[in-house]
Amino acid sequence: MPVKNKKLNLKDKYQYLTRDMAWEPSYQKKEDIFPNESFEGIKITDWSQWEDPFRLTMDAYWKYQAEKEKKLYAIFDAFAQNNGHQNISDARYVNALKLFLTGVSPLEHAAFQGYARVGRDFSGAGARVACQMQAIDELRHSQTQQHAMSHYNKHFNGLHDAAHMHDRVWFLSVPKSFFDDARTAGPFEFLTAISFSFEYVLTNLLFVPFMSGAAYNGDMATVTFGFSAQSDEARHMTLGLEVIKFILEQHEDNVPIVQRWIDKWFWRGFRLLSLVGMMMDYMLPNRVMSWAEAWEVYYEQNGGALFKDLERYGIRPPKYQDVANDAKNHVSHQAWATFYQYGHATNFHTWMPEKDELDWLSQKYPETFDKYYRPRFEYWAKEHAEGRRFYNNTLPQLCQVCQIPTIFTEKDDPTVLSHRQIVHEGERYHFCSDGCCDIFEDEPEKYVQAWLPVHQIYQGNCEGGDVETVVSKYYHINIGEDNFEYIGSPDHKRWLSIKGKQSDDKESGSSQDAA
Amino acid sequence: MSQLVFIAFQDNDNARYLVDAIAEDNPAAEIQHQPAMIRIQAEKRLVINRETMEEKLGRDWDVQEMLIDVISIGGNVDEDDDHFILQWN
Ligand SMILES: [Fe+2]
Ligand SMILES: [Fe+2]
Ligand SMILES: [Zn+2]
Fold it and tell me: N or C: which terminus of chain A has fewer CB atoms within 10 Å of its end residue's CB?
């Protein structure tokens, strides 16, 4: 009878299969092999202190990932075979997926590239293995998201050219520039930016309540890829927290550097998430929780506990956290109002909320919605009803750092737009906030190079000077199909026919004054 | 100020056992049911014990199996062959 080998315990197995696979170089200098490890000023005295609490080894990694994939693809098949798109709450919901596929999925791919690169940059074996696994995870996220949404692409408009749009479309420069900024930083800043500030502190807001919302809107495919990706995220988040603790414990000189990165990447992440806030409050026909509620649970409560824990290292909560907390009652409305006005230049549809939806917003935002936003939305709805669907034909002023139009308001006065400007080497630069202005002033040589979509259009670099040419030729948005108002759109008509209803011919159509 | 740790699972059959085991070993934990997910939070500390899980499941259970159903966590992680712990210091 064969003797069963005694299983190694988790700690030993991790030690053998991870750390012991590394070696000390003998005929090359370590600095030559890992040339990017020191220029950021981060001091590492002992890489063996690096902890991976999950102690995941490659064999276990493949085993669990394979199981996740099998479950996920069984559900995709079932969803497609049963025409799952017909069972969603309302076709307006699909517009959130269009934004997701063009704005978020390419970031998964950027994360894959980022981790593959920084994994090469560290001389510590534990960090290298963790980054390698994460790179593979992120590639999986990018792929599974595209697979999930390819089913919707067969039935709805605006999903046909996501990678191309991500590189060019004006609002997609917001997520794209976020990740490009991280990927062009040094390896330690990249981990602070993405593993810690983004994944640990902020991605719950994207993947947890929003995906729960997808389930609530009958989208089995999306909730499944979302939660399948998020199961990897639990590991990524743990890595994020460990990275920060490791760097801070290595040397006290690291503390001010890390603090500056936390300030920067919290602010950049917060700005980026305005898009998610809008998706939750306006693009989920069945709502789970408001953006403000999600912010309270996942940032104020969980982030509060986290920064309290980090106090012992001399780390304080991010600068301008107070501005961000205050903005939870405004950003989703301000972002939706902007997309509504520029709906002729988007690959998804926009609309004004229906009466019960406005009531829900009034109830969820008692301090702000009725006072600052509802009257404007009711006015636009009335204009639309009278045949004057409003589009804004003036291109907006963009922030040099986050690249969002300067649409946000001052913390102490929601009737005043927040706008900062400085002159640097004879050029004037504009910002949405003190947070973004600080980031520029820290590294002006980086941000003067920003590719700002509006500037590029005006400079003639986008295949034409008028919006219509840019939108169709440069962005590949199909005019009259992908863009404009939802009511009366081909998607809307298709949905009505799926549900066996006639369109009531209250066409908002494309007879608007849009460019 | 209270300092909550949390863990969230997909609301599926596996999670049912995890939630039962957590509820048994962490009597003060608060269990929140949300669409497609279950979120559990507790003050400072939350533990999943392999032994309790094996009792619930009636089979051997590897602590790393929880990686398949977890959606998110908040807190410092400490894992070994017998337990998975989340805590704030
Ligand atoms: Fe990801
Ligand atoms: Fe991730
Ligand atoms: Zn900005």
Answer: N
Residue A377 lies in a domain: yes
Count of A-B CB contacts under 8 Å: 100
Domain span at residue A494? 56-514
Q: From residue A156, how far is each of A479, A495, A511 by CA, in Å?
A: 14, 9, 22
Chain segment A108-153, per-residue pLDDT in tens: 999 999 999 999 999 999 999 999 999 999 999 999 999 999 999 9
SS3 B34: strand
The reply to whether A13 falls in a domain is no
What is the C-alpha separation between A102 and A104, in angstroms, rounded? Answer: 6
Q: Which residues of A touch B77 (CB under 8 A)?
A: 53-54, 238, 241
> CB distance B71–A233 less than 8 Å?
yes
B24 to chain A, minimum CA–CA distance in Å? Answer: 23
Instruction: Select the more confidently predicted residue: A312 or A17.
Output: A312
The whole-model pTM stands at 0.94
Which residues of chain B lie closer than 8 angstroms to A11, CB-CB?
80
Q: Is residue A2 part of a domain?
A: no
Distances (CA, A) of A417 to A36, A267, A322, A336, B53: 41, 18, 17, 16, 55
3-state secondary structure A294-334: HHHHHHHHHHHHHHHHHHHHCCCCCCCHHHHHHHCCCHHHH
CATH number of the domain encompassing residue A210: 1.10.620.20
Average pLDDT, chain A: 93
SS3 of A212, please? helix
Q: What does the pLDDT look like over A161-188, one tens digit per residue?
A: 999 999 999 999 999 999 999 999 999 9
State how many domains chain A has. Answer: 1
Could you tell me which residues of chain B have a Cβ less than 8 Å from any Cβ in chain A? 1-6, 8, 10, 34-37, 63-65, 67-81, 88-89
Q: Is residue A208 part of a domain?
A: yes
